[in-house]
Here is the input.
Amino acid sequence: MQVTAINKSINIESVMGAIAAKIDSAGFTAWIAPLSVELCGSCLNLVAQNQFTADYIKREYGNILKNVAADFLLDLNVSVCAKNTFVKSANDNVVCEFKPIKQEVKNKNGFASFISNDENMFAVAACKKIAMGDASFSQLFIYGPAGSGKSLLLDCICDTTDKNVVRMSGGQFVADFARALRDKTIFSFKDFCRNCDMFIMDDVCALAGKRATSEEFLQLMMDLRANGKTIVLTANCAPSALNGFDRRIQSLLASGLVVDVVAPNAYVRRSMLVRGGVDAGVADELSKQISGDGHMVNGIINKIKTYTELMGERVNMEVASKLLGDVLNKAKTPLSMVKAMCEKMSVSFDEICGNARTRRLVRARQIMMAALKCATNLSLSEIGNVCGGRDHATVVYALSQIEKQKTTDLILNAEIEDMIKLCK
Here is the structure.
């Protein structure tokens, strides 16, 4: 905070301390602390770097600021500094300007590079609509497990749209916000995020538990929506299942179009392998023996490519078995069984292990527990651990519920039999 004390009879630090006591710490840090503060006679001047900030402070904190100033027998004036006259930072010799880290789009083929399955077609269609700029919804929230293609969809949008896009990861937003506070360039950071047609953030979960950053993100979302800007966000779970966010943010994130994407199935894994240069026959076998996400498939492609380049020979299935012994499924573990069942039931592993209790997820968890009980020798506590750390009592209750429903629900019986087959 830059402070110029003109009237020595008033302790300006006391005035600002009184303001800080009446405003939440996140709001004070983000909006009031970076202002230039001057005392001219009986008037307290708060000087903002731009008109947007001055208007926001008047609207949100005007009454509080006037009351505090009146307690010190002062008038209040919130103004905008003249161009190139903003007071320099106390710990710097020049006026700082926020310079974001530029992110290059890795994908240059648009949506043709995304291999979709039936479960992901709705999400892909929504992304295409957003990219073309004629969507009836202005906020899109995409969630799914790691390696399901969320970041690739964002690449496709950036490569296809002709709008002015600001894209950053959740981690970058946290780091840039902290850097802007440190360098006293917070208003430039705010302007940068808002000066766009489309704002994209990958991995919103990185903001969890960071109160000041979450407050800034909430205000950013509200401002972008109020100005008709397009917003695209991704996370590893649905808005209602996000941990570390208050109810206001969860509600705002859920107010747009929420779509989910699932991990690659066998067809998508095979297509990725073939597109990556793996022989079709080898790709057929590998797609059946690996159950990993898209990141693992890309790692396999890179390993096969590198082997071919270094050894000068094509990789057949015999070579692939030796080369990929660390990732091929030789024996099913309880974890791999649960992940296979997640894929079969079109739910993410993170959702199953999370705290969400929607009817769909509760039913899926109970079916998985019943299948593990029939197909393995795991104890009830071990079954609870592999299904997201559930306790013994939860597993007992789940199994009892399944037993009651099995007597009248033939579809449930068939689903459990299918899950048992996956585990054997």
Observations:
- Strands lie at 2-4, 36-40, 43-48, 75-80, 139-143, 165-169, 198-202, 230-235, 257-260.
- The longest helix spans residues 51-71.
- The chain has four domains: 2-80, 110-260, 266-323, 334-423.
- Residues 334-423 form a domain with the Chromosomal Replication Initiator Protein Dnaa; Chain: A; fold (CATH 1.10.1750.10).
